[in-house]
């Protein structure tokens, strides 16, 4: 059987972008994806291409966000596709009872600080907004793409550049001594010189198959998706005080890492951050509940979740609360410092990781390009800052 230069596991935005960039470099690349329908975090995301970081801006993140937005502006032409990139307004309503100064402070690190809007101005921007439920809103320009179209574009361009995609579920990494020499599903072994894990919320479990405990975690995210509807939502609406980010940090602090190796553990209580976005086909995604449960297949009560999401949306965007919609869930990877894990995994050769992104849609494209440069022997010193070894890998 052919020995590939690189096997990439997972065809969400991270695996699709990285496979494409590696194929462009002339490597032989096999992209393995378990789900032909790609019902993953990328598929159910809002598609927001943030112009600046949610978790504090440093010179590094500022540069990468700029690179990411620039990349998205040119991606349709580079991939010969239509990623549906556009600029929209991000609207962050501040709920009645919340402190506007606290909300503004929580966004003060934005490279482009959001503007505070009084209720009426917020309503002009987003006519569906319920001004009774808010004290005002923050607003900032934002990018937006179709995540599915972007991944499709990457995958098609990958194949045009000689890449191969197969739809199989990788069940384990194949280890020979201190080296991973490929992957296998239940029937076949796929040999490779190197393997890169881009499996989103499944990355931690896959690396466990070779005895590695890598500090990449996941939330169970739940959303509702409507069919195309006539109602028009103009903006990307997200909560000004995002609870998800705080939950992720708390759920992965210090000693909590070891809890993630226990089965069926609830690490932190669930949080609900109300959000909504309409896509060009007029469908709307309404979200989102985030749960930190260590079992990737943990059961959740879909009906209860749906009612909770509808209730939260009903407060800020009443016309959307009762639209017909289907409940979906997915796993979303994260790291403790909101920066991705990129690079070799200490103590084992032949396996690397490219996962744990927050703001994956904007950051995965530029970092995939830089990572492919690095793997082709070029100098990409900045990637050292994303090495998994910045955390203590056991
Ligand atoms: C409601 C919601 C809104 C969001 N909004 C935004 C946003 O606006 N902007 C933004 O940047 N991010 C957003 N995110 C986060 C973003 O969706 C994720 O960070 C990103 O999609 C992760 O991409 P990924 O490639 O790491 O994972 P995924 O998209 O989950 O892809 C991983 C892939 O690996 C495959 N896989 C896993 N295990 C195996 C295996 N054993 N064998 C083969 N294949 C396997 C899976 O099937 C999957 O297709 C949002 C998330 C949610 C849930």
SSE blueprint:
Blueprint: E1 4-9, H1 13-24, E2 29-33, H2 41-44, E3 48-49, H3 59-79, E4 86-95, H4 100-106, E5 115-117, H5 119-125, E6 134-144, H6 147-160, E7 164-167, E8 172-176, E9 179-184, E10 189-197, H7 203-208, E11 217-225, E12 236-238, H8 243-251, H9 256-259, E13 266-278, E14 284-293, H10 302-316, E15 326-334, E16 341-344, E17 351-355, H11 360-375
Parallel strand pairs: 1-2, 1-10, 2-7, 4-12, 10-17
Antiparallel strand pairs: 3-6, 4-6, 5-6, 8-9, 9-10, 11-14, 11-15, 12-13, 13-14, 16-17
Structure report:
With 394 residues, this protein is of the alpha/beta class. It has two domains: 4-82 and 147-216 and 337-390, FAD/NAD(P)-binding domain (3-Layer(bba) Sandwich), CATH 3.50.50; 89-141 and 217-334, D-Amino Acid Oxidase, subunit A, domain 2 (D-Amino Acid Oxidase, Chain A, domain 2, 2-Layer Sandwich), CATH 3.30.9. The chain has eleven helices and 17 strands. It has helices at 13-24, 41-44, 59-79, 100-106, 119-125, 147-160, 203-208, 243-251, 256-259, 302-316, 360-375, and strands at 4-9, 29-33, 48-49, 86-95, 115-117, 134-144, 164-167, 172-176, 179-184, 189-197, 217-225, 236-238, 266-278, 284-293, 326-334, 341-344, 351-355. The strands form two sheets. Strands 3, 4, 5, 6, 11, 12, 13, 14 and 15 form a nine-stranded mixed β-sheet that branches. Strands 1, 2, 7, 8, 9, 10, 16 and 17 form an eight-stranded mixed β-sheet that branches. A hairpin with a 5-residue loop joins strand 13 (266-278) and strand 14 (284-293). The model has no long low-confidence stretch (mean pLDDT 94). The chain binds flavin-adenine dinucleotide (FAD). Residues 9-15, 32-35, 38, 40-42, 44-48, 169-170, 198-202, 206, 221, 223, 287-288, 330, 332-333, 355, 357, 359-362 line the site of flavin-adenine dinucleotide (FAD). Flavin-adenine dinucleotide binds next to helix 1, strand 2, helix 2, strand 11 and strand 14.
């Amino acid at each position: 059987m052919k020995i590939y230069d690189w096997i990439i596991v997972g065809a969400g935005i991270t695996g699709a972008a990285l496979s494409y960039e590696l194929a462009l470099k002339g490597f032989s690349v096999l992209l393995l994806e378990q789900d032909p329908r790609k019902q993953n975090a990328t598929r159910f995301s809002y598609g927001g291409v943030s112009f600046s970081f949610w978790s504090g801006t440093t010179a590094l993140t500022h540069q990468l966000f700029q690179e990411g937005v620039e990349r998205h502006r040119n991606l349709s032409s580079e991939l010969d596709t239509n990623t549906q990139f556009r600029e929209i307004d991000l609207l962050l309503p501040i709920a009645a009872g919340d402190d506007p100064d606290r909300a503004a402070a929580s966004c003060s690190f934005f490279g482009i600080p959001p503007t505070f809007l009084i209720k009426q101005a917020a309503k002009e921007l987003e006519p569906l907004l319920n001004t009774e439920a808010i004290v005002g809103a923050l607003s900032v320009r934002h990018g937006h793409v179709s995540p599915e179209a972007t991944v499709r574009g990457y995958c098609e361009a990958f194949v045009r550049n000689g890449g191969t995609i197969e739809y199989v579920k990788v069940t384990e990494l194949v280890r020979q001594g201190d080296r991973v020499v490929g992957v296998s599903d239940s029937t076949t072994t796929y040999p490779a010189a190197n393997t890169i894990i881009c499996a989103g919320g499944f990355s931690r479990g896959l690396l466990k198959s070779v005895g590695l405990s890598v500090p990449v975690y996941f939330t169970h995210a739940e959303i509702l998706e409507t069919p195309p509807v006539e109602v028009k939502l103009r903006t990307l609406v997200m909560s000004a005080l995002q609870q998800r980010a705080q939950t992720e940090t708390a759920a992965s602090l210090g000693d909590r890492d070891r809890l993630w190796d226990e089965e069926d553990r609830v690490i932190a209580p669930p949080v609900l951050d109300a959000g909504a976005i309409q896509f060009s086909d007029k469908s709307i995604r309404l979200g989102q509940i985030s749960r930190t449960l260590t079992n990737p297949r943990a059961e959740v009560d879909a009906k209860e979740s749906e009612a909770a999401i509808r209730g939260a949306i009903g407060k800020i965007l009443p016309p959307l609360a009762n639209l017909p919609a289907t409940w979906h869930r997915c796993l979303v990877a994260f790291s403790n410092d909101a920066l991705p894990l990129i690079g070799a995994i200490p103590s084992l050769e032949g396996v690397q990781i490219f996962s744990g992104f927050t703001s994956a849609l904007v950051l995965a494209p530029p970092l995939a390009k830089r990572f492919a440069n690095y793997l082709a022997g070029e100098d990409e010193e900045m990637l050292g800052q994303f090495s998994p070894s910045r955390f203590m890998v056991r």
